[in-house]
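Task: sequence design from structure.
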């Protein structure tokens, strides 16, 4: 059994804490970890909530996040294995969504859409749940079910890191 990606350290700091710091610095509060090892994440000081559909892919986790976070206009959902994520990228997503009232999501884009770095309006959960009910588990496909905008992001910020060898300098 492998280690949870959220708990793998990058430069001595667990990735989940690095992501939480970027979100908090951008003004995203509360920060809630969806799914994963709740005991270990709680030990790191993170608030956790269960994924309603564990093991069913990220769309279910996104729906769980959108339904869990109440009384906010925007929920930023990012993967836990982005230790180089900056508050600048998170803030750009939120600001872009604020500037486009009809959009349901703002997705980070480098050379392609980064489906696990998206600011969502909670109302998008309805469409995402419809997609999920049809068996769709790919975020990129589910994203097509809502009006979304693309936001350019620094590729460095969105490096997916599963091991130290994945870091590109």
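Answer:
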């Amino acid at each position: 059994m492998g280690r949870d990606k959220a708990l793998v350290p990058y430069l001595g700091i667990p990735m989940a804490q690095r992501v939480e710091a970027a979100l908090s610095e951008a003004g995203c509060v509360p920060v809630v970890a969806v799914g994963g090892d709740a005991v270990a994440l709680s030990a790191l000081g993170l608030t956790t909530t269960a994924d309603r559909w564990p093991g069913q892919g990220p769309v279910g986790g996104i729906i769980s996040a959108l339904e869990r976070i109440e009384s906010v206009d925007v929920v930023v959902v990012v993967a836990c294995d982005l230790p180089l994520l900056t508050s600048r990228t998170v803030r750009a997503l939120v600001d872009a969504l604020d500037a486009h009232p009809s959009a349901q999501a703002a997705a980070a884009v480098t050379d392609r859409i980064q489906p696990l770095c998206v600011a969502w309006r909670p109302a998008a959960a309805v469409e995402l749940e419809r997609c999920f009910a049809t068996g769709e588990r790919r975020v990129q496909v589910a994203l097509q079910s809502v009006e979304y905008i693309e936001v350019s992001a620094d590729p460095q910020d969105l490096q997916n890191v599963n091991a130290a060898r994945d870091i590109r300098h």
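The chain has a mean pLDDT of 88.
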